[in-house]
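Sample 1 of the test manifest.
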Amino acid sequence: MDYYLQQLVIGLSLGMVYALVAIGFTLIFGVLNVVNFAHGEIYTIGAFAGLLIFVTFAPPLVVVLLIVLAVGALTGVGLERFAFKPFRRFSDEATLKSRAMREATLMSSLALSIVAREGIELFFGSQFQALPLSHMLNSPIKIGPVTIVDGDLIIFGTSFLMLAGLQFVLKYTSVGLSIRAVSNNPLGARYVGINTDRTIAWTFAVGSGMGAVAGLLVGLYYGAIFPAMGFTPGIKAFVAMVMGGLSSIPGAVICALIIGISEALSSIFVSSVWQDLVAYAFLIITLIFFPRGIFGGARERV
Amino acid sequence: MKNRRHMLTLGTAFALGALGLPALAQQPTYKIGYQLPLTGNTAQYGIDFKNSAEIALDQFAKAGKPFKVEIVFEDSRSDTKEGVAIARKFVDDKAIVGVLGDFTSGVSIASAQIYKEAGMPQLSQTASHPDYTKVSEWQFRNITTQAQEGPLNAEWLYASGYRKVAVIAEQTDWGQTVVSNFVDKFKALGGQVVFSEFFNRGLADFRPIITKIARDKPDAIYTGYFYEDGAQFLKQMKQLSVTIPVHSTSASYNQQLITLAGADAEGMKLTATFLPNNPAKNVQDFVAAWKAKTGQAEPGQFPAQAYDAVNIMLAALERAHPNVTRKSLRDQLAATKNFPGVTGDTTFDADREPAKKLVRAQVKNGAFVAVEK
C-alpha cells in the first residue's frame, strides 16, 4: 500500500510540474489561438537566468522568483514583437481570419525557439549546469509512509497562486477584460476600441513570466538545468492543454495532474521506458474521442 | 620592349621558384578525420574529445617528428544520419588517411559501414558495443567493452557478498550490453537479478524507478548510465532515503558527476581505466595540460580515452611513414603493441579490441579513489 501511495505522491508532484508550465502556455494559446513553440525556451531562459542570479548575488528565493518573473515577462514581450507581431501588419478581415497566418506564427515561434536554444548552448555549453546545492528545493519531508520534498510544496503553492491570480486578473480587472475580449473575437475587440496590440503584449508578458518562473522552480527542483530542458515540459504542457479543452486554464491544470499521476502509476505496470508514451496516448485518445477536449466549451475542434 | 617582357617573365619565374622551393623542402602533412558531437545534447563529450585531441596534437608538433598531422573535426551531433554523411565526406577526401570517432556506438557502427566499403581505418575512443569491431577489419577501439567490464563487475559484486541485485541502464545499444554482460556472469556465479529495467536517457525523474527498486529489496544496484543521469539518480536516491549500495560502469567516471550530485554521490563504486591521481608521468602531464587548457580540475575517463586514441593513431602514422596509405595505416594500427597510454597499456588483439586493465574505484570525500582489492 505504501508503495502505491508513494507512486501516487510522486505522480502528483510530476503533474504539478507540468501544470506550472501549462498555465502560461494555455493563456497564450487561449488569447491568440496559436501555439507558442518558444514557451519551452522561455522556461529554459527562466532557469538559466535564475542560475546566473544565484551564482552572482545569492539572494533569497522570493527575490529570485520576482526577478525571473520580470525577465520572463520582458522576454515574452520581445518574443511577441519578433515572432508574432509582424504577422499582424494587415488588419483586414480576410487576413485576421486566415489560417495561413496561424501557421506562419507557429513556424516563426519554432524558429525563434531553435535560435534561443542553440544560443544558450553556444554560450553555456550543452551539459547540465552545476547548481549551488544549497539552493536546490530538495530537502525531503516524511509524511507517514511517503516522502515528499519541500520543492513539492513550493511548486504547489506557486501553481495555486498563479492559477488564482490569473483567474482574479481575468475576471475582475480591465486588463483581464480586454484579454477575454481579444481572445473571444480580436476583430470585434478592435472595433470597440480595445488596443489589441497592447493586450496581446500583456498576455505574452504574463504567460511568459509564468513560464520563466516554472523553469526556475523545476530547475531547482530536479537540479538539472541544461539548454534542451524545455522540450519535454513544452510537449506535455501542449498535451495537457489539448486535453483540457484548449482555452480552459483550470482544465489544462487538471489534465496536467492527470498526466503526471498516470505516468507515475504506469511505471508500476510497465517499464519506465514507456513513461513518455502515456502523455501521447492521452493526446491520441483526446483527439479521437474528445475533440473539444475534456473540459472544452463551445470552441472549435482541436 | 622585348627585353622588359623577358625580365618580367624571368622575375615572375624566380619569385614563383622562390616560393616553391620551401614547399619542396616542407614536410608532408597527413590528415586525420575526427567525427564527434560538437553541438546537440552530447556536445559536452565531443568538446572534451576535441580538447584532448588538441593537447595531443600540440605535444606531437613540439616533438620534432618528420611529418605534420592535421585533424579535421566534423560535428556529427551523435546523429546516425549526420555520422554517415560525414563518413562519406571523409572517404571522398583523398588526403584523409584515417578517422577517429564517433562518440556513441550507434553512430560509430553506422559510419563503420561506409569506412568498411571504402577501406578507411576507424578508431573509436568510446564505442563499446561488441558489434562495432565485428563490422570489418577496419574498425578499432581503445575502450574496454562491456563484454570485459560486465563480468568484472559481476565478480566484484558477488565477492562483496551481494546475492540479489537490481540492474538499470539507459535504453541504448550500450545500455543493453551493460545489462546483458553483467547479468549473464552474475547469474553464472550464482547470484539473482531481482529487478531489471531500462530508462530513457535524459530522464529527469527517477523516483518511480527508485521506488520500484526499493520495493524489491535488492542487496545492491548495478547501473549503466552516464554522469548526467547518474547525478539525478543519486540525488533522488538520497531524497527518497534509499540506502542500497550503487555500483556503476566506467561511463560514470566524470568529475561532473560529483559536482552535480555533491554529497549524494558519496560511496558509489565503479570500474575505471583512468585515475587522474595515478602518479605515472604521462598521466600527470596529461592532467596538467588538461587543467591548463580547459580550466577544469581533472579530466574524466572519456577525455583520457580520446587522448590515447589520438596518440595511438599518431604512433601508427609514425610507423607507417613515409608510405602512408589507408591500408598501411590500418596495418600499423593493428600492430599497436603495449602502447603506453594514460588509460593503461594498449595492445590490439586479432579482433582489434584493446587488452586493458580496469581498476576498481569509488567516490570518497568528493573524489574518485582507487579501491584496494
